[in-house]
Write a structure and sequence with these properties.
The protein is an alpha/beta fold. It has helices at about 20-30, 60-65, 85-105, 145-155, 185-190, 210-225, 245-255, 270-285, 300-305, 315-320, 325-335, and strands spanning about 10-15, 35-40, 50-55, 70-75, 110-115, 125-130, 165-170, 175, 200, 205, 210, 235-240, 245, 265, 310. The strands form 5 sheets. It has a 7-stranded parallel β-sheet with strand order 3-2-1-4-5-7-12, sandwiched between helices. A two-stranded parallel ribbon has the order 6-15. It has a two-stranded parallel ribbon with strand order 8-11. Helix 1 crosses helix 6. Bound molecules: NADPH dihydro-nicotinamide-adenine-dinucleotide phosphate (NDP) and ligand LLCNDLXC. Its main location: endoplasmic reticulum. Belongs to the 3-beta-HSD family. Pathway: Steroid biosynthesis; zymosterol biosynthesis; zymosterol from lanosterol: step 4/6.
Amino acid sequence: MATRVRPSSKRCAVIGGSGFLGRHLVERLVDKGYSVAVFDIRQSYELPGVTFHQGDLCDKQALLTALKDVSLVFHCASPAPFSDDRALFQRVNVEGTRTVIQACQEAGVQKLVLTSSASVVFEGTDIKNGKEDLPYAKKPIDYYTETKIQQEKLVLEACSKEKGFFTVAIRPHGIFGPRDPQLVPILVDSARQGKMKFIIGDGSNLVDFTFVENVVHGHILAAEHLKPDSPLCGKAYHITNDEPIRFWDFMSQVLVGLGYDAPRYHLPYTLVYGIALLLWLLTVLLRPLVTIKPTFTPMRVALAGTYHYYSCARAKQDMGYKPLVSLQEAITRTVASYPHLRKGS
Ligand SMILES: NC(=O)C1=CN([C@@H]2O[C@H](COP(=O)(O)OP(=O)(O)OC[C@H]3O[C@@H](n4cnc5c(N)ncnc54)[C@H](OP(=O)(O)O)[C@@H]3O)[C@@H](O)[C@H]2O)C=CC1
Ligand SMILES: CC(C)=CCC[C@@H](C)[C@H]1CC[C@H]2C3=C(CC[C@]12C)[C@@]1(C)CCC(=O)C[C@@H]1CC3
């Protein structure tokens, strides 16, 4: 059943509100009548009903200014996953999140909704219909994911009825949609370089790609259902499109929609993974002399060649979640939003 939110609780903050997901979240919150304070290291737009606070989330004083009179905080800031900067991930995702929790508690914030990631349980091998009770990855696929695990643990452990501070973590997977700076641009860049001719493996591996508006819907539902004694307190929730799709069908639909050819030729998974591993070793050995950024990293090959889709049954049960936009509609809207990436443009 939908929960009515009292007007007094309609002031919130979005840490990372200038980013891809953050901005979609802010826009929806404003539509729903929230007044929003954005805290981000950069300001990328202006919007009525939104105040911007530019700063680093590791700076508690700067956070405290942004969190004044705020009862609900969404934390969706992170360095970009492919930046490969271990110290930066540790500083922002782990130490920074500790600071966010302290600042929330000092400012009297009641609810903290963290954007985690479904990848916190992924080790590079198949996950089919994974539930939230899967153990955290012992060998996470990269530093980014390693710090997302630590971040999620910190936020969920901070949930305290005694302190009146309630936390929940949303675990989306493969977010895509208009203005995404990663997925579609990387894909088109690879196609333009002639690298999208091959399918890694037999192409049957199912994966979740989740439309950004559905991810936003999951965050807002979580915030509105998070209260004392609700089952959400201190828990993690998968939010997906609930329509796993073959990884290579998704890639092909986006590519063909933008005027490029779909990948056609199959390469054995173990061969490509082996080559990616060798290339990675080479980049590590040559790092003192030269910086190489290969397209085929072991992590990307694993993401492209294995099953990784998750159940969102817990979110359906505890917060009435249901995707608002179907996968086909989402792909159509996403393709239409990138006219500048069409072939020949
Ligand atoms: N995109 C996806 O497919 C998935 C994303 N997620 C999670 O969702 C969240 C949002 O991701 P997405 O929107 O794609 O990422 P973006 O990079 O688009 O947004 C993150 C925002 O946080 C800002 N930021 C980074 N460091 C700091 C800092 N120290 N202080 C304040 N702000 C900072 C970024 O600024 P700048 O750009 O300058 O670094 C950016 O504006 C992240 O937590 C991510 O881990 C989880 C699963 C999948
Ligand atoms: C579901 C999920 C976690 C999606 C994340 C998206 C990215 C990991 C992908 C977006 C574009 C993809 C891509 C490749 C790997 C995975 C992505 C980076 C390749 C590098 C795989 C090997 C190729 O043939 C080229 C691909 C380019 C696009």
